[in-house]
Structures are given as C-alpha cells and as structure tokens.
Specification:
homodimer; 262 residues; alpha+beta; PSTPO5379-like; PSTPO5379-like fold; 4-stranded antiparallel β-sheet; 11 strands; globular
Chain lengths: 262, 262
C-alpha cells in the first residue's frame, strides 16, 4: 500500500492502528508534518512565549488546551496520545523510554506543542530544482550547536541549533526566496557561509545527524532547526516531557501551501 | 517642540515626565505603536494562545515576563507603568478609572501584552498613495462587530471586530499587496465588499468610531481590528485588567520596517 499519496488523516489512522510505526519522511506528501513537545501546564506559558520570541527555530503550528490531546487547529480529529508512530519520554531531562503510545502516560495538565519541521521547506527546495545534499546522500541532515543565543523566556534559554545544506551562491539566493514563503517551517536561512561566524568549529563534525560533502564552489547554508526547542527544554530538566522520536513526526491536515506567509 | 520626528525612546521620556499626555497618532513617525492589555498571570497562557491563534486581530509585538513592566523585545529601556500617556482600569469587565500611570496599580502577577496597531499599515497605505478616508475626514476610523468568529483559546472567545476604509477596486488590490507586508500590524484585509456577508447590517452605523463616506465606485475594505482582543477580554470579566486609553498608544523602539514579514 503506497502511503506517499494518502492524506494526513488517512496516515494518522494507520499509525493509530499500529499499521505504520516507522519514520514519516516522504509519506502523505504535501501535508505538513510537525515536531511534538508535551510539557506540564506549569511550564506552558514560558514555553509558548519562548516559541513566540523565537519563531525561526520554534514555528508554532498548534498548541493544545491543557489536558486535551486534540490539536484543534491543524487536525481536529486527531489524538496526540496515539497518532505519532513513536514517542520519547524524558524524566528530569533524561530519556527513559520510547513508548508506542501515550495512553498510560498522558497527564491532566499536559500541554502539547506542535512545531513546524524542515520537511515542508525541503519539499519546496526540491520542487525549485535546488539540491538537498543529505537526501541525495541518503543520510540525516547535519545539525550544529551555534553561538546564536535564542531570546530567553522565563526558565527557557539556550543557543540555536541549525541544520546545513550546501549550495552554490546562486542556489543560496534562490533558497532564500523559496524558504521565505514558509515562515512557519523555519523560514529563510539564518546564515550563509563561514561556519566560524556562528560558532561552528568543524563543518565535518556535526553535533547531531551526519556530515555531508560541501563541494568546490559551494558554501554551507544554515537554517534554524527544530532540535533547538528540544535542547532548550531538556536543559530545564522538567519532571516529565514527551516528544516524538526523531523522524517519526505528527502529520497534520494542513497542506504545505497553508503554511505560506502573507 | 516637534514630536513628529523624535524617536520612540525620546517620546516615551516625555510621556514618562508627563510632558505629553495626549494621543500618540502622528508622533515619533516611523516607530511602531502598540495596543496594551495587562492581565493577571492566571489568564496569561489562555490569552497568549488566543493571540497566537488569531494573529490578524491580535498580532503580538511583545509579552512581558510575569511581574515585569519591561517589554524586553521592543523597548528594553521602557517601563509600562509610566510610558503610556493614559491608561484604562477595568474591574470585572467595567471601566472604573483612567489613571495617568500604573505606579500604585501594578501587580506582582501582571503580564503585559503589546499588540500591533493600525497606524503602521495606514502609514504604508498613505505612502503608497492610497486613501485613508477617516484621516482625510479628521475623524475616528469606523469599526464594526462581525459574525466572523475568532478561534477560541481557553476562556477567550468572541467575534472579530473590523475597521473599514473605502477604496476603489484597483486601490483595494494595491492595499492587499501593501498591507500583506505587515503581518504584525493586522496584515491583509479580511473582507472586501458586501458588509452583510460578514454580519454588518448598516455600514453607516459603526459599533465604534465614526461613519465615513463610501463614494460611488468605491467598496468598503475591512481589516481585523485591535479592538477585538479588548472586547474578548472584557467578556471574561477578569477581576482586573488594564489597557491604554484609545489613541494613547505605547510607542516602541521598532521601526515600521522591522514589522515586515519574511
């Protein structure tokens, strides 16, 4: 059964029935996928404010009402306790489990945040004929901690994590245009060129993901990355926190084009 | 002393010293002005989520940390207890006072929201050679309650309030382009043409502000209005709430161009 061309709601049904338990990259093409962060209500205002102040690494797709597992804006028939292929449970900032669902773990004070993900703008880059090196290479995108400080909010603070895709100068200019159309999927790049200028010491040794080749005539192009909010949350060591397992995203009812800014 | 061409911080100094106590329209030209809503912390998450879900009527400029009167993002040297020319105090949803400052009223659990205002896009309309009828007529902009429901969040719900400026078809098209550049100042219009389609019965009898002439060949163009969040908050009848007095805005350090979207 080809899951590339089914709708977001169809894919979620299969995930809910455990017929699909793997990564979601390339599935339900054209539908927006999102990062998941679930936190206790006591941290929700600070985290919402953190996301509002840092829209490039933390573009808000949807936020649930305290206790409700339903993302009313982007997928009103979904249940965040069952509709993600694989979760991660953190206690005091340490990962303790990778549960298949949250039926036993969901808390009455849980607030779920769905944040935009790079799949949306990578699709747009590919459609524009621009290279996405890690997809061609069949590996993970390289990600780096930078010296760019996020704007803090309450207890949340920390450096921005970025992802990198090598491009020629002309491709980088076109990529700025293409990605600026998607402010809710990390938007335009945050840096082009010298990795040292944003505190990256060795482009061949990413902090997360896999290294990719930067060819002669290319320069590294850096985007704000959805790993940023996770890193910032873990530093606070909340009593509990739940995220998706990397690559195992929540798939919404929104089309990529719904994310285009004004 | 000409206050049209001083900076936001200069104008705030004069307001703080009570050298200026009137409306702020046309002052510190080019600097972003903002609506003020101050609420108890217990309502802050719901209201922040309401604003996030309804960015056209409630475009977030800045939100303070609980208890702090300093808008760190848009005017880090400002004090929201003294830097607005005139305030309004509401208790249980009823206006009870128009204080000159908040020195005695500020609460330890106060959270201040600064929301984008129409001055930014009206300046842009004028610079584009487009008519802003109520400015020409020297009256207030006409505002109407509509049947467009805002997206609710927690305790906050209610209809969108819109402002109206008459334009020809060609002017309306240009206005969509010009205002789309400012998603944090209400952005593009929400409706063009038939007032009945959004629940407005009589265009000559606005719910707030003054009526303006719609000339032959013109149609009414409607924008989401900053009165919306105030109306929604008052319906909840919070124990206390503070706003600016209409027209007596908070002036930020941001330039209008800083509000342009990606």
């Amino acid at each position: 059964m080809d899951m590339r061309h089914i709708s977001g709601t169809e894919l979620r049904k299969r995930i809910r029935r455990r017929e699909h338990t793997g990564p979601t990259s390339g599935l339900a093409l054209g539908f927006v996928q999102a990062n998941l962060v679930v936190l206790p209500q006591s941290l929700a205002f600070d985290f919402l404010l953190f996301c509002q102040r840092n829209p490039k690494p933390c573009p808000i797709i949807d936020v649930t009402e305290p206790g409700s597992p339903v993302p009313t804006q982007c997928a009103p028939d979904a249940d965040l306790r069952t509709d993600v292929p694989r979760y991660r449970l953190f206690r005091d900032g340490e990962m303790v489990d990778e549960p298949a669902d949250l039926k036993a773990l969901w808390q009455l004070d849980a607030v779920a945040f769905l944040l935009g993900c790079s799949f949306t703008f990578e699709d747009a880059l590919l459609r524009a004929g621009l290279p996405v090196r890690h997809i061609d290479a069949g590996c993970n995108v390289p990600m780096y901690r930078t010296n760019i400080a996020c704007k803090s909010a309450g207890v949340f603070a920390g450096p921005m994590v970025v992802s990198m895709r090598p491009m020629t100068s002309a491709q980088a200019i076109r990529a700025v245009q293409v990605c600026s159309r998607f402010p809710r999927a990390h938007g335009s790049p945050v840096h082009i060129g010298d990795p040292g200028a944003i505190g990256i010491r060795d482009i061949d040794r990413p902090d997360f993901g896999d290294p990719v080749e930067v060819r002669p005539g290319e320069m590294p192009v850096f985007w704000a990355c959805g790993v940023t909010p996770q890193a910032v949350v873990m530093q606070v060591r909340p009593a509990w926190c739940i995220t998706h397992k990397p690559g195992h995203m929540f798939v919404t009812d929104w089309r990529d084009t719904d994310l285009e800014g004004e």
